[in-house]
Design a protein that fits this description.
Number of domains: 1
Radius of gyration: 16 Å
CATH topology: Rossmann fold
Structural class: alpha/beta
Distance between the termini: 55 Å
Largest sheet: 7 strands, mixed
Number of strands: 7
Order of helices and strands: HHHEHEHEEHEHEE
Strand content: 15-25%
Helix content: 40-55%
């Protein structure tokens, strides 16, 4: 039987410190999830693939990117995982943005415990004045609405990498009625049913 931690390490290139931090994060998530619905409890036994690797795979697509904004950060995927993997790299910083105060309090507790290069913002994603290289999100909204949340970040020079499900292509077709954009689709390396949507330039259809 395969070892999920060893598999994650092999695929992601994680260090011993990365693994140690992710174990603490998993413990904190499991404890908090018992009293606050952050992720589906059935998904926690598959944490290393479904959550950790699903998030960390984004770094293989933009390995030189140091600044990221995770919109609707929720339980911390992909943002906390990205911050753990980037920890110690000069100039690395992740903004975790969520409109729900109790989720932000959980995220801040994790950030403080692990001394992560993170700013947690309790607010609406589209109202923030954050400049980053990559804007990302997972399980937040359909592409048409998500691109609206992300538009200010694109205006400040960001590119988008969004973790989506099987309906990604249909969502992009719907979004094309509202937005002009350059987009690419790749198959998720954590689940062949998933898709990673990369978005370049973005502007609203006149």
């Amino acid at each position: 039987m395969s070892d999920p931690i060893a598999d994650f390490r092999a695929k992601s290139g994680a260090s011993d410190q990365n693994i140690a931090d992710l174990k603490v994060f998993l413990d904190m998530l499991t404890e908090t999830n018992a009293v606050m619905n952050l992720v589906g409890p059935d998904s926690l036994p598959d944490f290393w693939n479904r959550h950790a690797w699903d998030s960390a795979q984004l770094l293989s697509l933009e390995p030189d990117a140091l600044t990221w904004a995770d919109l609707g950060a929720g339980a911390g995927f992909p943002g906390v995982v990205l911050a753990i993997m980037l920890k110690g790299r000069e100039g690395a910083h992740v903004w975790l943005i969520d409109s729900l105060g109790k989720r932000c309090r959980f995220l801040q507790t994790v950030v403080d415990a692990l001394d992560l290069p993170v700013t947690v913002i309790n607010g609406r994603a589209e109202e923030q004045q954050v400049k980053v290289e990559i804007v990302t999100a997972r399980a937040v909204a359909a592409m048409e609405k998500l691109l609206g949340y992300a538009q200010p970040y694109f205006q400040r020079g960001a590119k988008g990498l969004f973790l989506k499900g099987e309906k990604a292509e249909a969502e992009l077709k719907d979004a094309a009625g509202v937005w002009h954009f350059e987009a690419g689709l790749s198959v998720s390396r954590s689940d062949p049913r998933g898709r990673i949507v990369s978005v370049g330039s973005l502007r609203r259809v006149r």
